[in-house]
Please model this.
Amino acid sequence: MPWFIFAALGLLLLAVLVFWMAARKQRAAGMPGGRVIAADMGSWKRMEKPLYDPKTGLAGRPDYIIERGGTLIPVEVKSGWAPGEPHDSHLFQLAAYCYLIECSTGSRPPYGILHYRNRTFAVDYTRPLESELLSLLDGMHAQQRRGEQARSHDEPARCARCGFRSQCDQRLG
Model:
């Protein structure tokens, strides 16, 4: 057999191995099957700009956006162990990403995914969840207008990473 047949078979085997490893990594990250559209984890397919809704002022980048059957699904990856049920803050973060995807594309995600170290939750993006999110945002904006926003933590490391640190009169350390 000529050498180029061996080379072609070797390249084919390498391609199969790379696809298998990518699929395995995708499953380990808690993502459903589908095409990764964007990722905010590392530099791979990084979104250039965050999703943004001018009406609410809401902006954000999900860790991943998966396209499955023509539908975009946000995926939020948490590094800790899963609680019995997702924390409200995590649910609203995921709901915000669903809302932003709908605002940006006109297509409503039916659900989003919260992936913890040991468990994954599929969270339905319902109208009541969207209403709670918008009500929460309205309350936050009202507090901001009245100057009533207080720091929500006592963690210096979290404070140091905050995007509002330079303007905050309650920053730690």
